[in-house]
């Protein structure tokens, strides 16, 4: 398959640059993958599509204030975007500057924080931060929220809260698992009252999620690695759901990647480590029955993932409908629910 098979036309005016006043104010496009039919709703109506005994799986990663600004020893301006924390006071980062900094060298960031550039791993630079203070704490003081490149504005204090899910707990991501942004505490409580169970895993979203595919064919593309943890409690929750005839609904593509990575040997098992799983049409899903997701960039690996679940034609038709109906796209945009009427049974 070709990358161009997953493109669609999107007016720039439909890219959401700000969150709505309330998390649940977003719209919900409901797609039945069995028929390709779409229904326009508001997000709280998700309660009508979930049943007692269903399981929602969410990602509790917390976005780090991972964008940093400063100057090189030569005086030139520089921007850092952390990709991941690698332990202690070290991290990998993308560096944007007029000239690549030498190795070794130093960068003075806002607040006179001096960081050492100690090496390189592919497109990323190895950085060492000073002192023994936990790096997430240091970033809270010196960093900026890493809004995606298609949001053409500087981050604001409000983004510190709105570019996090209400269940964000484990710092480590540099991009939000945006499907979770539509849930608030009241909606989650209502779903619990409806008999919908919730389970939590972690996948730290990397900056590579925004990188374009640079190959012509899907089979030649290699995914960026992301760290995840699927605990035994999630595996047990999935087993309980199967036993009672419920459905496993992933909240976001990050949850899909985590669950399906943990099931690649067959049955779902606890897993902690990195994944480079690439899900595109033809993929055999072992765990999930449905998905809550946002609308994704044309030709992106995430459009390919949702096409693997619902079918390319159904997804592109749904996206065309969303454009005509002026849905809001991408991270701060509206949501889609992909869920067949029956729910796909898994062995």
Automatic annotation (TrEMBL):
- What GO cellular component entries does it have? cytoplasm
Q: What PANTHER family does UniProt report for this protein, alphabetically?
A: S-ADENOSYLMETHIONINE:TRNA RIBOSYLTRANSFERASE-ISOMERASE
- Descriptive protein name: S-adenosylmethionine:tRNA ribosyltransferase-isomerase
Pfam families linked: Queuosine_synth
Q: How does it assemble?
A: Monomer.
The record ties this protein, via HAMAP family, to: QueA
**Which keywords does this chain's UniProt record carry?**
Cytoplasm, Queuosine biosynthesis, S-adenosyl-L-methionine, Transferase
The taxonomic lineage of its organism, from the top, reads: Bacteria, Pseudomonadati, Pseudomonadota, Gammaproteobacteria, Chromatiales
Name of the top EC class for this enzyme = transferase
Q: What is its EC number?
A: 2.4.99.17
Cytoplasm keyword on record:
yes
Free-text function comment from the UniProt entry: Transfers and isomerizes the ribose moiety from AdoMet to the 7-aminomethyl group of 7-deazaguanine (preQ1-tRNA) to give epoxyqueuosine (oQ-tRNA).
Keyword presence, DNA-binding: no
The gene it comes from is queA
Domain of life of the source: Bacteria
């Amino acid at each position: 398959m070709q990358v161009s098979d997953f493109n669609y036309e999107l007016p720039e005016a439909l890219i959401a640059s700000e969150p709505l006043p309330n998390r649940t104010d977003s719209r919900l496009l409901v797609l039945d993958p069995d028929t390709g039919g779409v229904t326009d709703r508001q997000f709280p109506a998700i309660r009508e599509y979930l049943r007692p005994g269903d399981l929602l799986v969410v990602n509790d990663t917390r976005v780090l204030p991972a964008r940093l600004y400063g100057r090189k020893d030569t005086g030139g301006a520089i921007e850092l975007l952390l990709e991941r924390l690698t332990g202690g006071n070290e991290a990998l980062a993308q560096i944007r500057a007029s000239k690549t900094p030498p190795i070794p060298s130093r960068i003075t960031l806002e607040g006179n924080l001096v960081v050492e550039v100690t090496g390189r791993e592919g497109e990323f630079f190895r950085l060492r931060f000073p002192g023994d203070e936990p790096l997430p704490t240091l970033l809270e003081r010196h960093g900026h929220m890493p809004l995606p490149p298609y949001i053409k504005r500087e981050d604001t204090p409000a983004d510190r809260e709105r570019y996090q899910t209400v269940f964000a707990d484990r710092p480590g991501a540099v991009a939000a698992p945006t499907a979770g942004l539509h849930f608030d505490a009241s909606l989650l409580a209502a779903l619990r009252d409806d008999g919908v169970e919730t389970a939590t895993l972690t996948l730290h979203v990397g900056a590579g999620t925004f990188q374009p595919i640079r190959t012509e064919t899907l089979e030649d593309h290699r995914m960026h690695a992301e760290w995840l943890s699927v605990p035994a409690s999630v595996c047990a929750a999935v087993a309980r759901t199967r036993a009672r005839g419920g459905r496993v609904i992933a909240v976001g593509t990050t949850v899909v990647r985590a669950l399906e990575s943990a099931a690649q040997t067959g049955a779902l098992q606890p897993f902690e480590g990195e994944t480079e799983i690439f899900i595109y049409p033809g993929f055999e899903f072992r765990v999930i029955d449905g998905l809550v997701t946002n609308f994704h960039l044309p030709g992106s690996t995430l459009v390919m993932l949702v096409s693997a679940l619902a079918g390319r034609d159904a997804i592109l038709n749904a996206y065309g409908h969303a454009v005509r109906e002026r849905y809001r796209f991408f991270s701060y945009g509206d949501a889609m629910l992909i869920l067949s009427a029956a729910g796909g049974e898994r062995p």
